[in-house]
Amino acid sequence: MRKYYTRPCNFYYGNNSKKLIKEKKALPLAGNLHIAFDQLEIFNRKKSGKIESKIYSINQIKNLDKKIALIIKEDINKIIVKRKNILNIKFNKPQIMGILNITPDSFSDGGLFLDKAKAFKQANLMFKSGAKIIDIGGESTRPGSKPVKEKEEWIRIKKILSRLKKKNPGMILSLDTRKSYVMQKGIEHGVNIINDVSGLNFDKKSFSIIRSNRIPLVLNHMRGTPNTMQNNLKYSDVLLDIYDFFEKKIKFFEKNKFSRSSIIIDPGIGFGKSLEHNLRIISKISIFHSLGCPILIGTSRKRFIEHIVTKFDSPERTGGTLASILYGLSQGVQLFRVHSVNEINQGILVFNRILNTN
């Protein structure tokens, strides 16, 4: 557990960003000249458990205690470095991951795509609507859901994976699973990315499968299992605790010869978090840039939206979803996991165009 944490803030966009970077008045976020920052929020985790934070300009860092300044400068190097492309996915602009649940009980679209023809049609619709990645899952991980046997999970998704790869060989497929058996089978059938909501904690064999196949990973944060994750919602500080989880995992991966450049991080909105936890993560999400990995966020149709809008809730929660996504975009989040791809893509395209018009 570290003592100091670094969050880039006070962002600039478009030509204004490029101008400030050129004048050395701001730094590029993740190597992207279209988004820059000139301030840092430094968090200090005290021995007492108390968290303090203070905003500094980037020019003030050199005036800090040498040991602290060294930590912050190492973080800055990770914040500004360009993210390497993963499977030709460029992270200098927002990208969409479309959700395809082949399950009877997922919280939003359970049962809608169990029919393989409907699932195939939906995957192609999301792809044509702007999804760079299609994320396919055969097991629900909504709060309270029960685990599915690995062979049953594989049977649910096998035919749709095979058909999509045969008909659309260029489509990037992500496999949403916690099980090494399903991971290996999926990789053999052309899956490009593994998306494990358990952060590789559910199945001890998962990491060896990912490492041996050199396949990119979406590393998620989740407390417990879907059946238990909402039972114990205690953190010392949810933002920093999740950061510590990711940092520990990444160090382990690198020690075992799995590159940081193959990892996308997802703080797991709604997975073992209260409304207050989710809001703190989203509002301060730019802290995760100092891990040096692309950031994915999945807020699509999540229950925290209902908790905020109460009587104005709706089944698809498009407005709440889009609001959270556009805030994430303004903080440099690169990848968004969503159900309603066309509507969200519209919002991203318009917002990003406005953001970059100076």
Characterization of the model:
With 358 residues, the protein is of the alpha/beta class. The protein contains 11 helices and 12 strands. The chain has 2 domains: 4-80, no CATH class; 95-355, Dihydropteroate synthase-like (TIM Barrel, Alpha-Beta Barrel), CATH 3.20.20.20. Helix content is 37%, strand content 19%. The strands form 2 sheets. It has an 8-stranded parallel beta sheet with strand order 10-9-8-7-6-5-12-11. Strands 1, 2, 3 and 4 form a 4-stranded antiparallel beta sheet that branches. β5, α3 and β6 (133-137) form a beta-alpha-beta unit. α10 (318-330) packs parallel to α11.
Which second-level CATH architecture of the largest domain applies? Alpha-Beta Barrel
Q: Proportion of β residues? A: 15-25%
Overall pLDDT: 93
Which topology of the largest domain does CATH recognise? TIM Barrel
Strand tally? 12
Percentage of residues in helical conformation: 25-40%
Q: Unreliable runs, pLDDT <50, ≥5 residues?
A: none
Placed side by side, the strands forming the largest sheet appear as: 10-9-8-7-6-5-12-11
Backbone structural class: alpha/beta
Rg computed from alpha carbons, rounded to a whole number of angstroms = 20 Å
| Beginning-to-end CA distance, first to last residue | 41 Å
H/E order of the elements?
Answer: EHEEEHEHEHEHEHEHEHEHHEH
